[in-house]
Structures are given as C-alpha cells and as structure tokens.
Automatic annotation (TrEMBL):
<dbReference type="InterPro" id="IPR036249">
    <property type="entry name" value="Thioredoxin-like_sf"/>
</dbReference>
<keyword id="KW-0676">Redox-active center</keyword>
<feature type="domain" description="Glutaredoxin">
    <location>
        <begin position="13"/>
        <end position="76"/>
    </location>
</feature>
<dbReference type="Pfam" id="PF00462">
    <property type="entry name" value="Glutaredoxin"/>
</dbReference>
<keyword id="KW-0249">Electron transport</keyword>
<protein>
    <submittedName>
        <fullName>Glutaredoxin family protein</fullName>
    </submittedName>
</protein>
<dbReference type="InterPro" id="IPR011905">
    <property type="entry name" value="GlrX-like_pln_2"/>
</dbReference>
<keyword id="KW-0813">Transport</keyword>
<keyword id="KW-0963">Cytoplasm</keyword>
<comment type="function">
    <text>Has a glutathione-disulfide oxidoreductase activity in the presence of NADPH and glutathione reductase. Reduces low molecular weight disulfides and proteins.</text>
</comment>
<dbReference type="InterPro" id="IPR002109">
    <property type="entry name" value="Glutaredoxin"/>
</dbReference>
<comment type="similarity">
    <text>Belongs to the glutaredoxin family. CC-type subfamily.</text>
</comment>
<dbReference type="GO" id="GO:0005737">
    <property type="term" value="C:cytoplasm"/>
</dbReference>
Length: 103
C-alpha cells in the first residue's frame, strides 16, 4: 500500500496499468488526447506489481485492479469512473485543478 501511495503522489495523474489490458490502454489514450501526460506504472513489469495490484484491488473494492487512476494524489477510480467524468464534462476541470492540463 505504501508503494502505491508514494507513486500516486509523485505526479498530477498516475495510472496503474497492465501492458496487456485494453481498458488501461484506452484510459492512457484518453489522457494523451486531452493533452495530459500521465505517469503510467505497468504492474506486470514491476517486481512489486502483484503486491501493488492487491493493494489497488482493496482500495477499489473489486477484484479487477487496473486501470486505477489517481488525480492530484487521490484515487478517482477505474475506467467506468474516468469515462463517466469525461462524458459529464467533469474530468477536464479535475485535471486542471491538479495541474495536469492548462486549457
């Protein structure tokens, strides 16, 4: 849990992902298309990945731990939450407030 918290607080937008996960790729593309440069941590390529995945699953309250998105150091959620925020127009202001995008 400490590794997740530490990594999540180091950048405005942090995505915990797996390189083979299409939903993780979709979320990363969305951020890039919005002009945001997320810090992406591929859990399947990190020696502590399994431990972090268990911690994220616990934080999210579900078995599927990726993608897990932190904005401004706070857990926002997974694909469904990020897409819902984007579609409602609430994602961009959240990103601006975190200093992740300027416009």
């Amino acid at each position: 849990m400490d590794a997740v918290t530490k990594l999540a607080s180091q950048h405005a937008v942090v995505v915990f992902s797996k390189s083979s996960c299409c939903m993780s790729h979709t979320i990363n593309r969305l951020f890039i298309d919005l002009g945001v440069n997320p810090s992406v941590h591929e859990l399947d390529e990190d020696p502590r990945g399994r431990e972090m995945e268990r911690a994220l699953a616990k934080l999210l309250g579900r078995n599927q731990a990726v993608p897990a998105v932190f904005i401004g150091g706070k857990l926002v959620g997974s694909t469904d939450k990020i897409m819902s925020l984007h579609m409602s127009g609430n994602l961009a202001p959240m990103l601006r407030n975190a200093g992740a995008m300027w416009l």
